[in-house]
Amino acid sequence: MSNDDLFTRAKLSIPGGVNSPVRAFGSVGGTPRFLVKASGAMVTDADGTEYVDLVGSWGPAILGHAHRDVVRAVQDAAARGLSFGASTPAETELAELVKERVSALGVSPIEKLRLVSTGTEATMTAIRLARGFTGRDLLVKFAGHYHGHSDGLLAEAGSGLATLAMPASAGVPAAIAAQTLVLPYNDLDALRAVFAERGDQIAAVITEAAAANMGVLAPDRGFNAALHELAHEHGALVILDEVLTGFRVSSSGYWGLSLADGPLYTPDLFTFGKVIGGGMPLAALGGRADIMDYLAPQGPVYQAGTLSGNPVAVAAGLATLERATPAVYERLDEASAVLSEAVSDALSREGVAHVVQRAGNLFSFVFAEERPRNYAEAQAQESWRYAPFFHAMLHGGVSLPPSVFEAWFVSAAHDERILSRIIEALPAAARAAASAKPA
Question: N6-(pyridoxal phosphate)lysine: which positions carry it (predicted)?
């Protein structure tokens, strides 16, 4: 069946024909591609068309799709049993590996780790844990930051909500939404003001280590450190969301990367997803032992899951992290730099105003004259230029994220030959963006 036929069929049984909104191509139009195979830097759709992939399953394919060692680890684990509903030795191995990797400048902020199944579950649990530990109810988040789809986090979120221009979600009770205070990103004055007014009620500040769900938007230099200092002055915790950036932009995530040219700061809790599961449903939260010990069965904050620490997912995560070597990160950085500069050059030749947004090897493009610093500025760009750019690249054999508000992902499999294929498609795509008109 063709992509068109599959989408028509899917809409009869699946809401919107997709199981995650951005897959519907609502932001760019057209028929979404139904993928049937992936290998290295390439994916193949139901029509048999092969594309260079710059989505990478939204991050976990750091080694490339279907890496043989990861596949072998998954196959071996599956042969031993798909799920036990009991503890396995590999869960501890993965927790130990994460603790070892997330360290910098002699600081190891993760003392204990709890495995869950999704990034949403990790952030939801981290927030519940922060509230239980502090005995406070309020949460501070930043507009445009996406921390999953639990009720209290869908106020001015990014990701699919940015793509669909939805300010919130139906079905969220007003009383729950009221427990989340939403502030402009990179605005320390706003943060100081809210702590001055309600500091003794705030359980935690949650922030993406570097925003990557309204396009890539890195924090101002020193912002994360100042945020931590302010929160801790008022007895609040800080939850650093590294679901996208963790183990993707460096072996110790954006936290470790940012310490290279900025002040030291130590988050109380981290959340991880994507790379930690190597493409399988796996996520985690971790941090200080005194906080983590508030989780059941040792503490009063309840969290459970039949599939938490699933042995097949843990095998994929271990195999991926063990192979995410310094050479892999060097390759990601090189590929990211070459590709982002090539896209920028192509757009510049056509006179298209744009800014390259970077956070380590994550990058995206804003169709504007100046770098945005917050969600409102990111939304003000000429986003209508992206759809024709996207479809021209797709026609040229390159699969981009189907929204201007998403990050681009390279992998260790994006070698010079693959990058050349992408670069060949850029001139036509840049011309399409230049000739685009607002709707």
Answer: 274
